[in-house]
């Protein structure tokens, strides 16, 4: 009956860490708090999150690296980026922490930010978040609305720059185009943003009814809905996610025992989480190269020589590197697609003479 894949978006298909951090634009939410911030740091918060670290002064580089490379795994929904930006700034700049203007700013939030480490955020974000939400007198729905509004305004004013702050992982765009499986996007991102990136950046059109975004309910609920649809009966079910906590929530539901669960190790998760996942029998730890080349029936396989003997070469260096890694690791699977199946968007094959065979 075929395969059904429910795919997370951020951290599985698309690396949107830079976009999420930029869109957060905490300055929009707390303008008085950031009035006294150094202009360089202000630029970083608003629209320079994607700038090369070498262009940032050292303290700002540390904050930026923490947000992009280390604490991003705690973010489940985009609005949390606003909280992280402010929390990291306050943890680095005591003067900002002391001048916080919220109605409870002189209370425990100073204690939370003071001496805060990356490890503290990773281990205790679920406890820290409600504390700072209360101390800053914030409302989840209001932050979600603001987060979406910032993105909408950015898209309206400069769509190209917004698109450019994201990137799809190597091989994903064209693989999505040519997949023979039934694909659904299940994400905490607002559907309109996921759809815009798929269309504008990846050149992929997925029907709106197959994109479950923010507001459609928890992912556990979406998976239950998908497996109950008459047209999905008898299909093999796969769920690819980069948040271990989400996969553990699925495991808690006996009703979802029929799903094959995968943790993408290229996404927003930590080494500790990957080690934990490796010891959970229901979860398969997945590398990007496995995802592209070996996921059953999700993505087409490849061949370097067509039936007529014409030799093909990969043009996309990143995808070729992934393939080479699989070869070195002993992957001996079939590379059996006929002809240059990929279009010009991300990966393509060019014909070369037989004497130049790769």
UniProtKB/TrEMBL annotation:
Lineage: superkingdom: Eukaryota
InterPro entries per the UniProt record, alphabetical: HAD-like_sf
Q: Could you give a single Gene Ontology term from the biological process aspect? A: SNARE complex assembly
Q: Which residues form a coiled coil?
A: none
Alphabetically, the GO molecular function entries are: SNARE binding
One cellular-component annotation, GO: endosome
**Protein's recorded name:** Uncharacterized protein
